[in-house]
């Protein structure tokens, strides 16, 4: 290191001496007018500049000497003699490794910048695969839900059948209970039942005779014209008997036909207005007894 310092100092010293020689031997420039030397004022300025240059060069020379002496630009200088050779080798290895890592990182970054993006076909294929996978999952879920629904419907049907059978059994038990209660009542109270039946039969006959007398008094027989000249007698009680008989004998078809000349129309209108009979919904020639049970 001392030889390099001495050589550097010699080079700087030679450059400084050369500049001094050039600066001090600056030729006198003659005037273009009278071929005489320039004025003293210009010479004074030039001398001041030369002096300033000399001071600057001296200052630069002193700073360079100080830097060389301090060896500020050296990695290992004479002041670091305490560092062992193994530490120096390790430092060199780390510096080399650092440079290699930086080189690798730069190369990878360059590859990333130059890396081409995937084509649209690849993206479409990946999207279709993802879509197919989701569709399969949804189909599996739908199949599972359908199986659960079928099982629930099957269980509901079985429960409905069991409930229907229970209702039938309950109805049969109620009928059997009523029959058993009647039989028990007949067995325990035969005389009371016979007397009660006689009372009801007597009351029925009495009511029937009273009704006939009422109809004959207030609704006497009336003649009805048949085919223009022939006449036929229509009784109000006959109309009621036909209606009641048709209702009892044919409960599914309780209507009777209003054949012209059979029933007197005012008697029919009386029963309709009283709410006792009603017309067929679509045929005004048919009437029936009103179903008071509903």
TrEMBL record:
Keyword entries, A-Z: Centromere, Chromosome, Coiled coil, Nucleus
Location of this chain's protein in the cell: Chromosome, Centromere; Nucleus
Cellular compartments per GO CC: chromosome, centromeric region; nucleus
Gene: PARPA_10643.1 scaffold 41546
InterPro entries in the record: Centromere_CenpK
Name of one Pfam family that matches: CENP-K
Entry protein name: Centromere protein K
Keyword hit for Nucleus: yes
Family of the protein in this entry: Belongs to the CENP-K/MCM22 family.
A GO biological-process term: kinetochore assembly
